[in-house]
Design goal:
By secondary structure, this protein is an alpha/beta fold. It has two domains: 214 residues, Rhopdopsin 7-helix transmembrane proteins; 255 residues, EAL domain (TIM Barrel, Alpha-Beta Barrel). It contains 19 helices and nine strands. An eight-stranded mixed beta barrel has the order 1-2-4-5-6-7-8-9, surrounded by four helices. Strand 1 and strand 2 form a beta hairpin. It is elongated.
């Protein structure tokens, strides 16, 4: 009985399989593929493409991929529109280029450059070979091998792109699994064709392997489109979340700036601004020859604030003009007292912002101050940034000429950090330059900073300009500056910026 069972069972299975394959029309699956692909195309074009931001790349390319594969499916299932060989040729080419557009769409979605020239040339070659072998029915096996190899290459390329994406959530893992499944299915059918197992003309005759492959392709393409839509949805959600966070951060910054502006106006009205003065020291003698006036804000709750914490807001809000005018008056007042009581002939340098420099009232603000001054105009020095000169060189030269006619000294602050031009040093009526602290910080160890500092000093002296180095904090820096001929320095090595009374005590001790 066992022998009879083993003999009858395989025949029954084979008979059932043959009856199923004889009654099976593969065109039905191809039509289903086309209809489902059309649905995906409509969703991509109508819903996603019109609703999602254009910054999310790859949607248009994936829509093209769906369209090309829909056309291929309908061409495969139709035998009345075109001759069979021509229909097969066009359908295979459309399918290949649909997969290529899918690959390009993934690259665009991942934010990568569309490097697909090599794949394009390969698919063109495959298409030419398809055209050649489609003319003869006995070359069906070669066509299958070519198609499966091309499909497998494209599926693996897409899988590699998904695997290398930064975000690896469920949509990415799902899409990667589908691409790997399609790669395996293509490899199985390629192996079957190469071993002469799959040698029946599809559509005319159908093998179980061909049916399995069509079913896999049909539902996998739908799964891929669903996976892509999930990735696009997650990208949109992340983008909107980032925009919301950026908006909240921007609002927080705006509120903080508005509060700072209100506090600044109150600071000017209630005399919360104070002046500190940092000595400028002669490198050779060690004597204080000048001071730089620096504004500070004695905030009622935040304590003493340096200019870096509020000057930019002053510039943007226009508060820099009244604050700059107040700074000039305070500096001139202190210089008068220094001239009369502590150190006759000492210089006072004051920073002037771009807006204040370009203000038409700058000269008129200085004229009455100098008229009643106890010091010579040459003892007052205005420090200008390079941006003042760069913005409008002709206007800057005219204003600087006007200030020089009043006897005021001019210098370029933070020299070397902006767009320094030697022609400006030659043309403009300046008296000195200040080497920015960024070049002094790593002296003398950094050979680049040492070379730049040496070059600035040599160039300035050739143009008969005085050189001040700022940010000197170590004795090694001072020794190097002394060796290369720097004129003056300022920094914490000698003294930080001090209130007026502490400055007077320091000057008294330095004079002795």
């Amino acid at each position: 009985m066992s022998t009879t069972y083993h003999a009858i069972c395989p025949r029954l299975v084979s008979t059932a399989k043959n009856q199923f394959m004889q009654g099976f029309d593969p065109r039905s699956f191809l039509i289903i593929t086309g209809l489902l692909g059309t649905l995906c195309l409509v969703i991509l074009v109508v819903v996603i493409r019109n609703s999602f931001p254009k910054s999310i790349g790859g949607i248009s390319e994936w829509s093209w991929a769906c369209g090309l594969m829909v056309a291929a499916a309908f061409l495969f299932s139709s035998t009345d529109i075109l001759p069979l060989g021509v229909a097969r040729l066009i359908a295979n080419i459309l399918l290949l280029f649909g997969l290529l557009m899918m690959y390009i769409g993934l690259r665009q979605f991942a934010g990568l450059a569309p490097k697909h020239r090599g794949l394009l040339y390969f698919l063109l070659l495959i298409s030419v070979l398809f055209g050649w072998y489609s003319l003869a029915d006995n070359n069906y096996r070669i066509r299958v091998i070519l198609a499966m190899f091309a499909h497998m290459l494209l599926f693996l390329s897409c899988a590699s792109l998904v695997y290398r994406m930064d975000h690896k959530g469920f949509p990415e893992r799902f899409t990667l699994a589908v691409f790997l499944l399609l790669s395996v299915a293509s490899l199985v059918r390629l192996n079957a064709a190469a071993s002469h197992y799959d040698n029946l003309q599809f559509i005319d005759s159908t093998s179980p392997l061909q049916v399995a492959y069509v079913v896999t392709i049909t539902f996998s393409m739908i799964a891929l489109t669903v996976g892509f839509m999930l990735m696009v949805s997650r990208r949109l959600r992340d983008t909107l979340g980032h925009l919301a966070a950026s908006s909240a951060f921007a609002k927080q910054r705006y509120d903080a700036r508005m509060e700072l502006e209100r506090d600044l106006k109150a600071a000017v009205a209630s005399n919360q601004l104070v002046m500190h003065y940092q000595p400028r020291v002669d490198v050779k003698t060690g004597m204080v020859v000048g001071v730089e006036a620096l504004v500070r804000w004695n905030h009622p709750t935040k304590g003493l604030l340096g200019p870096s914490q509020f000057i930019q807001t002053c510039e943007e809000s226009g508060m820099i003009l009244p604050i700059g005018e107040w700074t000039l008056r305070q500096a001139v007042s202190v210089l008068n007292r220094l001239q009369a009581e502590a150190r006759p002939g000492i210089q006072m340098s004051v920073n002037v912002s771009a807006k204040q420099f370009n203000c038409a009232s700058l000269a008129s603000q200085l004229e009455p101050l100098l008229k009643d001054a106890l010091f010579k105009p040459q003892q007052l020095e205005l420090e200008l940034t390079e941006s003042v000169v760069i913005d409008d060189p002709a206007r800057a030269e005219a204003i600087m000429g006007q200030l020089k006619n009043m006897g005021i000294r001019l210098s370029l602050d933070d020299f070397g950090t902006g767009y320094s031009s030697l022609s400006y040093l030659k043309r403009l009526p300046i008296d000195g330059v200040k080497i920015d602290r960024s070049f002094v910080m790593d002296l003398p160890e950094d050979p680049g900073d040492a070379a730049i500092t040496r070059a600035i000093i040599a160039m300035a002296h050739a143009l008969e300009l005085q050189v001040v180095a700022e940010g000197v904090e170590r004795t090694e820096q001072l020794a190097f500056l002394r060796d290369i001929g720097c004129d003056e320095y300022q920094g914490h090595l000698f003294a930080k910026a001090l209130p007026e009374q502490e400055l007077l005590a320091l000057l008294a001790a330095n004079h002795q």
